[in-house]
Amino acid sequence: MLKLAAVFSGHGLLARVLRSASWLMIGYGGSQALRLAANLILARLLFPEAFGLMALVTVVTVGLSLFSDVGIGPAIAQNPRGDDPDFLNTAWTIQVIRGFGLWAMTLLLAWPVAWIYDAPDLVLYLPIAGVALVIAGFNPTRIETAHRHLLVGRLTALDLAAQAIGVGAMVLLAWSTGSVLALVLGAVIQAGAKLALTHFGLPGERNRFRWETTAAKELIRFGKWIFLSTAFWFLTSQGDRAILGRFVTLDVLGVYNIGYFLASFPMLLGHAVNQRLMIPVYRDKPADGPPENRRKHRLLRAGLTAVILSMLLLMSWIGPWLTGLLYDARYQQAGVMIVLISLSLAPAVITMTYDQAALAAGDSRAFFVFTATRALLQTGLFLLGTLWFGLPGGIVALGLAMVAAYPVLIWLARRHKAWDPLHDLISTVIVAGVGGSALAWHWDALQELIVVLRP
Q: How many CB atoms lie within 10 A of CB 8?
């Protein structure tokens, strides 16, 4: 016990990595627990179509955020000037301008999106949801500074407090109005709470409007490939719902959204930890340094994969039981969807640490090449799978796309000496054995889902 405490204490890289990883897991676990609690309450106060409408709102707002992301977070994390006030204030100024631009886009897109999805309520909901994007633009760069130095304990507590405020507001509004508007306004209130709490609760200098030409050029140079990468990441993270909105009813989309929320929890946890943890690790302990560096990378990768993959495979076994325990009969199809979604996400979990090696080295171009390849493959295969085999076919295509993009990821990983083939092979064998058994166990329910959702 004393030895473990000694490992976690101190200011060395390993101690900061372990503390940050622990806080990120606690924060993400707490965040998802709050989301689940809200989801269970809202599922009883609202109706499946409400979650379908909110999924479409999220597709647009997240899409706008991703299509305009210039990589301020990764830039601060990897740039030698990441602690320079002029650099940080220039980044914050760009972020504020971007927030207002995103809100203007929600105004412009509200009517066309409502027409495309035959959902007139989106004309009202999208501009209101866009207010959260304006608020988020004012978030202090001290958030990114905390991640840069792997000091995220206080930030995690503030994030959870902001989410609790947003969730509480959402539930109260849903109880009093019974409207989808409760979900939209809850997100805006949460954004406001996060801004207030991080502004007053994080130490460091306050941001001011500043435009240093040198800093702006550095941010733009690094961010141009991040901009393109995140535009394609939209297809990876939201493309399935954008496509399904045209092929299934709002209630089916709402049920799928709940199934995806439960099934993807492990992968999104891994993504959050990987995104915030691995850039500082690769930056401070580069793979082309002493052999000890690569050994540490392998240990971190194996540990992260073991934790996340175990949770994902568990979801593939207990999905239908969990849905039956938590939700009423209207949402039971989500349980069978969880089985397929969990296993389709496994390839992404196995390979998730490699792309951060490119960002840590400032190679945002290679990161873009991989992100674009994966996004195009996933979108194309998901569309074809849905057209030919319905929603189950689209879900299976999510996993096939990552497998098809694997050669490009190997190219990126080898370019930065991060590829670990033994890790990938062992993880794949485990997924094939445990995941294949889960498919066999739920085979009858899967066949019934395929028949019900056949195109």
A: 12
Residue 209 burial by CB count (10 A; 0-12/13-18/19+): exposed, middle or buried?
exposed
Residue (of 94, 426, 417) closest to 286 by Cα position: 417
Q: 301 is written with which tokens?
A: 């990768």
Look at residue 235 and tell me if it is in a domain: no
DSSP per position, 117-171: TT-TTHHHHHHHHHHHHHHHHT--THHHHHHHTT--HHHHHHHHHHHHHHHHHHH
Give the angle subtended at the CA of 287 by the CAs of 285 and 293, to the nearest 5°: 50
pLDDT digits (tens, 9 = 90+) for 390-427: 889 999 999 999 999 999 999 999 998 889 999 999 99
Tokens 């002029």 -> residue: 86
Is residue 259 domain-shared with residue 331, that is, in the same domain?
A: yes
pTM listed for this prediction: 0.69
Residues 355-359: contacts with CB within 8 Å, 24+ apart?
355/409, 355/412, 356/274, 356/275, 356/278, 356/279, 356/282, 357/278, 357/282, 357/287, 357/412, 357/413, 357/416, 357/417, 357/418, 358/412, 358/415, 358/416, 359/74, 359/77, 359/78, 359/279
Phi and psi at residue 386, in whole multiples of 5°? -70, -40
340 and 430 inside one domain: yes
340: Cβ contacts below 8 Å, ≥ 6 apart: 392, 395, 396, 446
Domain boundaries, position 177: 10-225
The number of domains in the chain is 2
- State the Cα–Cα distance between residues 179 and 46, nearest whole angstrom: 7
Residues 357 and 443 both lie in one domain: yes
